[in-house]
Amino acid sequence: MGLKRQRPPEAKQQRGPAEGAPARGEGPPGTRSVYFSGPGGRPARLGTEFFDQPAVPLARALLGQVLVRRLSDGTELRGRVVETEAYLGPEDAAAHSRGGRQTARNRGMFMQPGTLYVYLIYGLYFCMNVSSQGAGACVLLRALEPLEGQEAMRQLRSTLRRGSAGRTLKDRELCSGPSKLCQAMAIDKGFDQRDLAADEAVWLEQGPPEPGELAVVAAPRVGIGQAGEWALKPLRFYVRGSPWVSVVDRAAEQNGQA
DNA sequence: TAGCCGATCCCCT
DNA sequence: GGGGATCGGCTAA
User: Fold this and answer.
1) A160 sits in which H/E element
2) How is residue A77 annotated by DSSP?
3) pLDDT in tens, A136-179
4) A15-24, A29-38, A247-256, range with greatest mean pLDDT
5) Is A48 exposed, middle or buried (0-12, 13-18, 19+ CB in 10 A)?
6) Residues whose CB falls within 7 A of nucleic chain C?
7) First to last CA, chain A
8) Strand duo A216-219 + A138-148: pairing
9) Distance CA A95, CA A116 (A)
């Protein structure tokens, strides 16, 4: 797996809602689609071409797509992506790659688009990122709408989470946070640096078609208070009105950042 | 429902 | 040696 090519910084390329990358669907006639139809009507996985775009449009394009995890016993878990955050690379003070620092931990951020960057946070949780175009740039997956395998997810969450394991988790508690979705989908450090376009145990599928375009809210990212002006940039994206989102930002929604 | 705070340990400086 | 892209229980209103 090669390192991705260097690109100019993408920070100035934040897009307004009207010109964001299409969340799904075919490209213009005559162009090759990044979506591949699978046999038997089942949508096939998204390929490397899908991931090969800057972090902001990728963060938007990921909304509505379906993350699939095949467990060792063959069980398939599916969740629709409803919340993401873009991390833009060296210039982004909130990114692990800020200042261009590349370490053994964050190497996945610098690998080819579609590479997973999974890291341990607070000593006990995992977070899952997808590398995008641009050196050190990636997208954090923050929340999923559980579609398939909810009971397996509930078991995984109950087993892995700390504290009292007696309470039965509601569906909304399964994947409404970056570390919750890692627990529910059984994603850990072993998935670091895997290729979403090629791996046998985890991949992305084109989401089911929606009537009309998804309403997307852009809001400041969560939990990065130390990053100065970068903490305020609207680099978190979520599906407006979705009950599966981890943190709803009423102010951003009223500001029309959608 | 919102806000506070402790848990826990890897990674970086 | 210190901090962190979080979570969930507890308390107050």
Assistant:
1) helix A150-160
2) E
3) 999 999 999 999 999 999 999 988 776 555 678 899 999 999 99
4) A247-256
5) middle
6) A 85, 87, 94-97, 109, 117, 121-123, 125, 127, 129, 138, 140, 157, 161-164, 167, 173, 177-180, 221-224, 226, 246
7) 36
8) unpaired
9) 15
